[in-house]
């Protein structure tokens, strides 16, 4: 089955779609758990599957450095290397060379950087990055982009847009937007940049639309700018992107961020937030956040979220989770991660159902009301306790 | 169904039995994974179940200190607190107050010690320890014992035997050997002590046999004495214990230790070795140990053990496991732990099948030959590499 995307319903700016890949059809909006180094931290592949996830993300930068592309290729591609039957997306590495590596030089040709692991010197060119992702074998690869940060001098933001478009063209020329090295289809999405400048975002969106990618990401947001700016820029960008292509907002966010993005026509999201917060003992519920180490949970025999169907909520109490965190048991982050990802997937399922029903707006308001009220009450109790 | 034990077959000193509890029937010989603080480190309850384990161990000393017995009791007992449907055994805490806590005073009455967590002062009396274990809700509890270490002055070893018998009597007087606080039967096993003195071991075994416990443990071994001494003392003790009761050798060991114990009529074993080694990257296979961080596994696309049916062997390669260990991914110890426990359970199943077939001796020799040959070859390769 070739890659395809179909919007099935719309409601108040939100979309319900189906993203078809050779590794399964994925209902959108979808949140993609992050498996940076070939593992969603703390979960087996079966655990990830049980959260409801069918599309997960791997980081090209990390996998390229360790274990290296040759091994992944010899193992039969990333799906087989990590034992994942669902679909996979790899990012371009553009964000990581900027944020994690020591960036040595950015030229028209590409980026030279030093590994954050051992300081070794490497070069990413747009052609090499597309080749690397094809060899890694993701169902969806990302065009190599240049991310200049926010805030960003206008001249630097202009350079970011120009380089990102030029690199996209070179990537397309070298590899095309579709390939099938492993006998299944691999497609490439473009990434819109432009920092905090609406006109540059618009220019980037126009240039990428002309390049006719199977899908588009909005990159370089949620890096310190205000939420108003995030949503303004997201909205302005999605409006310019072709309605028949999936839109992927990179690196967001909290449950409220997720549904705020969905409300603006975003179809795909990813973030380390639910997994990283889980490891720190913070879980998300329909009634806001719970900080599991808090003394208030010492005797709390409730599940994390009584309406949740995850492995932690079906089998365990808050008191047990708290005990595991205080005892530094690995099972603590494992269960909290399962919960957070299940909750994220559940939230996307509920949002989609609301779109299909045609009452996304009412669902959105009810979700936000309940989540923020619970969060406020928790904060108030925490203040009384301290 | 009341607690019972039945020996179904014997072969060359080894026994195949059935240990029946209200939380299921357990085939013996059995290895019990250790869930010290209410979690087998790195595994969910389902993961533990999938290794084949049906009887796991909790540590009274740890659970008493954290999260405390009241919470476990209010949660409905340890099974419900940790979400485990199989059977549970708790140790007596006698070994931990000696090895982990700061031991303050040992008197006829009991033991005073300081917590290894916060230095707080606590007292374990034989009556309190039996009450604590009953409240924790294990299917099998252990009589409170006094462990003097090995080597041990004879006078101290004599004291250990005398105290352990006296405390067993007091525990029995206070609680009996069977109770049902949670609506299922809880039984108590006695622990034979006697350090490295065969005559004291014999005295302890005789005194405990007179007390008519539903099962017997051999305590205080594998603490630094020679393997010859371990097996000599084990053999001398099992010979004196009633043939119709299960025999539990505490704190052993490697796969070879397991089957050496089984060869001497041991029915039950526990140890942190397979789980601790797994976390350090060492796994056991039919062909000996593998140290997963070794460079030789960098490109090794074999499963850990091609004959193993565990989640790691069915889905993953040595190269992937090595990558996870080098990347400090939690999934590394998780998968290695699943493997080691599955391998231990498998080894016990194979040993049992050999006993039932009546050719335990041939099976034992084949297992030892293959395991030690593989281990020697690994060691030889490691030497060449370094």
Quickly describe the structure.
2 copies of one chain form a homodimer. The first copy, chain A, is an alpha/beta fold. Chain A contains 15 helices and 17 strands.
**Can you identify the CATH superfamily of the largest domain in chain A?**
Queuine tRNA-ribosyltransferase-like
Report the sheet with the most strands of chain A, covering strand number, pairing sense and barrel closure: 7 strands, mixed
Number of domain units of chain A: 2
Query: How would you classify the quaternary structure?
Result: homodimer
The secondary-structure class of chain A comes to alpha/beta
CATH architecture of the largest domain in chain A: Alpha-Beta Barrel
Number of helices of chain A: 15
Number of strands of chain A: 17
- What percentage of amino acids of chain A are in beta strands? 15-25%
Write the layout of secondary structure elements.
2 copies of one chain form a homodimer.
Chain A (H helix, E strand, L loop, with lengths): L3 E8 L2 E8 L2 E5 L1 E3 L12 H6 L4 E4 L1 H6 L3 H6 L3 H5 L4 E4 L3 H6 L2 E5 L4 E4 L6 E4 L1 H11 L3 E3 L11 H22 L2 E2 L6 E7 L5 H14 L4 E3 L8 H14 L6 E3 L5 H9 L4 E3 L2 H7 L2 E4 L2 E4 L19 H5 L2 H9 L4 H27 L2 H26 L1
Helix pairs in contact in A: 6-7, 7-8, 8-9, 10-14, 10-15, 11-14, 13-14, 14-15
């Amino acid at each position: 089955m070739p890659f395809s995307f179909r919007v099935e319903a719309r409601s108040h700016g939100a979309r319900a779609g189906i993203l078809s890949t050779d590794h399964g059809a994925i209902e959108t909006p979808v949140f993609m758990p992050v498996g940076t180094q070939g593992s969603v931290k703390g979960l087996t592949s079966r655990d990830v599957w049980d959260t409801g996830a069918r599309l997960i993300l791997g980081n090209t930068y990390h996998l390229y450095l360790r274990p290296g592309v040759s091994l992944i290729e010899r193992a039969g591609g990333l799906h087989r290397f990590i034992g994942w039957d669902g679909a996979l997306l790899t990012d371009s590495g553009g964000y990581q060379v900027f944020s994690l590596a020591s960036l040595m030089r950015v030229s028209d040709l590409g980026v030279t950087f030093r590994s954050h692991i051992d300081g070794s010197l490497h070069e990413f060119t747009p052609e090499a990055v597309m080749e690397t992702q094809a060899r890694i074998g993701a169902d969806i690869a990302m065009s190599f982009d240049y991310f200049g940060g926010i805030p960003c001098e206008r001249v630097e933001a202009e350079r970011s847009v120009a380089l990102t478009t030029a690199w996209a063209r070179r990537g397309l020329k070298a590899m095309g937007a579709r390939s099938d090295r492993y006998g299944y289809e691999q497609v490439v999405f473009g990434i819109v940049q432009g920092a905090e400048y609406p006109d540059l975002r618009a220019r980037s969106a126009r240039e990428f639309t002309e390049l006719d990618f199977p899908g588009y990401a909005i990159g370089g947001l949620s890096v310190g700018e205000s939420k108003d700016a995030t949503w303004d820029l997201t909205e302005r960008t999605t409006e310019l992107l072709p309605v028949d292509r999936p839109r992927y907002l990179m690196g967001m966010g909290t449950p409220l961020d997720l549904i705020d993005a969905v409300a603006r026509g975003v179809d795909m999201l990813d973030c380390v937030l639910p997994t990283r917060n889980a490891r720190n003992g913070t879980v998300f519920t329909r009634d806001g956040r719970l900080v599991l180490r808090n003394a208030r949970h010492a005797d709390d025999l409730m599940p994390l979220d009584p309406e949740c169907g995850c492995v932690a909520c079906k089998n365990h109490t808050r008191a047990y989770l708290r005990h595991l965190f205080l005892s530094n048991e690995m099972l603590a982050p494992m269960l909290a991660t399962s919960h957070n990802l299940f909750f994220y997937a559940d939230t996307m399922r509920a949002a989609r159902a609301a779109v299909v029903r045609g009452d996304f707006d009412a669902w959105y308001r009810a979700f936000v009301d309940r989540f923020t009220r619970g969060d406020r009450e928790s904060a108030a109790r925490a203040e009384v306790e301290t």
